[in-house]
Amino acid sequence: MGRVMSRTTGLLLGLLLGVATTACAPPWVPIDETTPRPFDMPTLQIRMAMPMGWMSSYYAPVGGYFFFTVHGSELEEFWVRRFPRSAIVKGTGRNTSGRLTVQEIAEISLDSRRLDDGTGNFEVISNRPATIGGQACFRLDYRHRNAIGLEKRALEYGCPVGDWLYRFEFMAPEEHYFDHFVGDFEAAVATVEFTIPGV
To answer: pLDDT tens, 60-108?
Structure first.
């Protein structure tokens, strides 16, 4: 009897755990012809035409970030996030508030990337100014090896807008996936409109 009850209890606990973890995971939504273009992201105060054929996920509990992929996060990562400029940038002990130039903010972002756990062979390919949604931004292109030795390449646009630092990031293994999907990322970022009042 006890063995049957413990087996039943184990099955119930496993089922509840599965339901709980599934409920906590953000749902994946396909981006197709029914997706509004541009798509409003009110938690981030932007509009953007999301990449067709990708999947999107929305991380409401951690600031309303958006994440996009085609085959999964190990193969393509496209993040849309923003951070208060008063917040300390990971690993640097600095924030991006005050009278910093866009390129000074870019250098802080690069320092943070170099100091990321599990990042090796970090190499900056380019660091140049950009304009997104009428705002002065930076565009970083870099490569590195991750914790398991996979070589990845990344593009990052950073835009100080009002009290926020917006980051649009794409990362993928350099062979095949980066070259194949980076055009989708660039095309989507080119459509960004900031909807912060007074900006």
So the answer is: 766 679 999 999 988 999 999 999 999 999 999 999 999 999 999 999 9
Q: How far apart are CA 175 and CA 89, in angstroms?
A: 30
Gap between the Cα atoms of 41 and 191, Å rounded: 13
CB 177 within 8 A of CB 75: yes
- Evaluate whether residue 199 is within a structural domain: no
Number of domains in the chain: 1
Helical residues (DSSP H) of 25-140, grouped into ranges: 102-114
Q: Tokens representing 113?
A: 């990337």
The kind and range of the H/E element at 22 are helix 2-24
Q: What is the mean pLDDT of residues 152-177?
A: 96
Residue 151: CATH number of its domain: 3.40.1000.10
Query: Residue 148 is part of which domain span?
Result: 2-194
